[in-house]
Amino acid sequence: MFLEDLSGSRFTRLPFGVKTAPVIFQQAMDTMLTGTEGADAYLDDIIFTGSNPDELLQRLETVLSQIQVNGFRLRLGKCNF
C-alpha cells in the first residue's frame, strides 16, 4: 500500500518479498519496547515478566500502551495471557 502526497509516495506497510523484512520488523519491535523493563520481543512474540501479579499487570498495561502508541495492532485470538 502506498501513501502519496506532494513530497512523493512511500509504503505504509512493509512490502512482501523484502529480503531483510525480519530484521526490519525486529528493529521496530525493539525500538517500540525500548525502556520497557521486563519486556522483550522475538519477531512477533512479546514476552514480559514480573516478580508478582501487580508488577506483571503493570507491565502488560505498559506493553499494550506502547503497541497502541506505535500503531501496531493485535489479534485477540492469537494472544495468550
From TrEMBL:
Gene3D superfamilies: 3.30.70.270
Signal peptide per UniProt: none
Source organism superkingdom: Eukaryota
Listed Pfam families: RVT_1
Domain Reverse transcriptase stretches: 11-81
Protein name: Reverse transcriptase domain-containing protein
Organism this protein belongs to: Schistocephalus solidus
